[in-house]
Amino acid sequence: MWCCRFKIKTCLNTFALLVVFCALFAAFLEAKITSSDDLNKRLQLFLKNPSLKNVSCGVSIVSVNKNSSLFNYRNNDLFSVASNMKLLTTAAALEYLGPDFEYKTTVGARGTIAASGELCGDIVIKGSGDPNISGRFYQGNILAIPESWAYAVRSKGIRVITGDIIADDTIFDRIYTHPNWPENQLSEWYCAPSCGLAFNDNCVDITLLPGKKPRDVVKLLVEPRTSYFTISNTSVYTSNKKEHLYSISRKPETNEILIKGKFWVNASPEKTWVSVHNPSLYLATVFKEILEKNGVEVRGNARLIDEGGAAESDLTVITQTTSTMEQTILVTNKQSQNFYAEQILKTLGAQIKGRGTSEAGIEVIQDFMSKIGFQPGEYRIDDGCGLSRDNRLSPKMMTTLLAHMSKHSYGRVLWNSLPTSGIDGGLRRRMEAPKYRSKIHAKTGYIARTSTLSGYIDTTTGDVLAFSILMNNFKNLKVMQNIQDDICQAMVDCYQ
Q1: Nearest to 407 by CA among 373, 439, 372, 363
Q2: N or C: where does the chain have the smaller number of CB atoms within 10 Å of the terminal CB?
Q3: Domain annotation covers residue 230
Q4: d(Cα 43, Cα 72) in Å, to the nearest integer?
Q5: How many domains does the chain have?
């Protein structure tokens, strides 16, 4: 009898557990359905916003773990993508070169070094396309790297250089800026030229400082101090805050910088960056000047290596500077650095196709697109950074790329390079509420009449959502960004 009661009790317990399990599973499925339905309802409402009436907009949201689509709106249409193009460029770099790829910039002597300390020949700086020769990783000291080179030259006992300081930029071509970039903005930092031997993001840093006397010429802090450019400064101080307006530009095809206008006496210092012309010669000139300041006589000139030529392979190596692709990708996406993206593009061309050109780099990206399922005729790529309006991609292409990279062996490098909501990059002042802070990892993008946001959403269920929101032909940027944020926040709300 006891055995019978035990069996009945066991069966009842098992049945009860089964009932509980089924109820929990049903609730789980219902929650999932509710989440999906709720997300669709909320997003459809956002997309009916009157501000989107004449806007071209596409949205794609996918579950990475389940490899399933959660929401689509014009997801196969092609849009201008602005800086979301950097996602494709940096992903291709991880695919073909990897995060540990090293840029190597070599400083070498061409000629003989006499016991007297005289180098009967030239110093050659052989570039590899490294975008990181700047103060970015050296506590802001712009001259840290060339100063270390000068120290290495002196350490070799060299006190006189009879020849030239030669910039070997032959790893890349000398087409510095893209023909489809806005001609009237080429002196801006975001149009900085791309080259085989770069320095300080190929820009000069200029800070306007406050003053005390109206009508006095505005004081400037210029870094680096070099003879490579000239500054014509006619800007003056004003005591009238409403008159605070000035402009800084560079004459095309020259290194003459013009500053004019008025600067309010009580304003805080304002820093800007101006691109340079012929950037590889910029570095050679600065290095020559540093050598001379450190007691090394240079009898020759700073110059570019002859076009089509290359320094001899038997250079006596004096020193070498390296940086990694992981460093480069972090800056590219976190800071949305166009210059970095273009350096990566030509690096892909040089390393994979044997040609350091934008065209060769685009060929590599097209190969990558084929790997993830898209053929060249289905989209258009015109540069590596997204400044060109002729890049055309679909939301589905972006989420396919993101889903692919989330499972890639180097996918975490891409993830870590993305701006994070409420924390840094282009999202540091967006979606700052505690509920959303640090939950959205995405690349922003903006050029005239184009705003984009593509990336990942953290969920508490262990899933990852990849999304892409592409918007073209609008009038009010802030309204578009608010709608993008609403969509992202809805994803977080529905998939907690």
Answers
A1: 372
A2: N
A3: yes
A4: 10
A5: 2
> What does the alpha-carbon distance between residue 382 and residue 390 come to, in Å, rounded to a whole number?
6
**Which pair of tokens denotes residue 251?**
């004459």
Asked whether residue 273 is domain-assigned, the answer is yes
From residue 115, how far is each of 112, 118, 120, 122, 412 by CA, in Å? 10, 7, 11, 16, 52
Question: pLDDT, tens digit, for every residue of 100-151?
Answer: 999 999 999 999 999 999 999 999 999 999 999 999 999 999 999 999 999 9
Residues 232, 346, single domain; the answer is no
Q: What's the angle, vertex CA 441, arms to CA 408 and CA 198, rounded to 5? A: 75
Q: Which residues of 262-278 are buried (b: 16+ CB within 10 A; e: fewer)?
A: bbbbebeebeebbbbbb
Rounded Cα distance between 176 and 196, Å, is 10
* pLDDT (tens digit per residue) in 341-354: 999 999 999 999 99
Q: What is the DSSP letter of 210?
A: -
Q: Are residues 240 and 334 in the same domain?
A: no
By residue range, what is the domain housing residue 445? 45-99+326-494
CA 236, CA 220: separation in Å to the nearest integer? 11
Q: Are residues 189 and 303 in the same domain?
A: yes
The answer on 174 and 49 residing in a single domain is no
Backbone angles phi, psi at 217, to 5 degrees: -70, 135
Q: Which amino acid is at 159?
A: R
What are the pLDDT digits (tens) for 298-334?
A: 999 999 998 666 656 679 999 999 999 999 999 999 9
What is the domain-level CATH number for residue 145? 3.50.80.20
Query: Phi and psi for 206 in degrees, rounded to 5?
Result: -130, 125
- Residue 412's nearest CA partner among 375, 368, 456 is 456
CB within 8 A of 153, min separation 6: which ones?
Answer: 107, 123, 291, 296, 318, 319
> Could you say which of 299, 325, 351 is where a domain stops?
325
Asked if residue 234 and residue 116 are part of one domain, the reply reads yes
- The pLDDT score that the predictor gives to residue 461 is 83
Three-state DSSP at 77 gives coil
Same domain, 188 and 234: yes
**Cα separation, 440 vs 473, whole angstroms:** 25
Helix 325-334 and helix 85-96, axial crossing angle in degrees, nearest 10: 170
DSSP notation for 387-454:
-STT-BB-HHHHHHHHHHHHTSTTHHHHHHHS-BTTTSGGGTTSS-STTTTTTEEEEEEEETTEEEEE
In this structure, the answer to whether residues 95 and 210 fall within a common structural domain is no
**314 and 339 together in one domain:** no
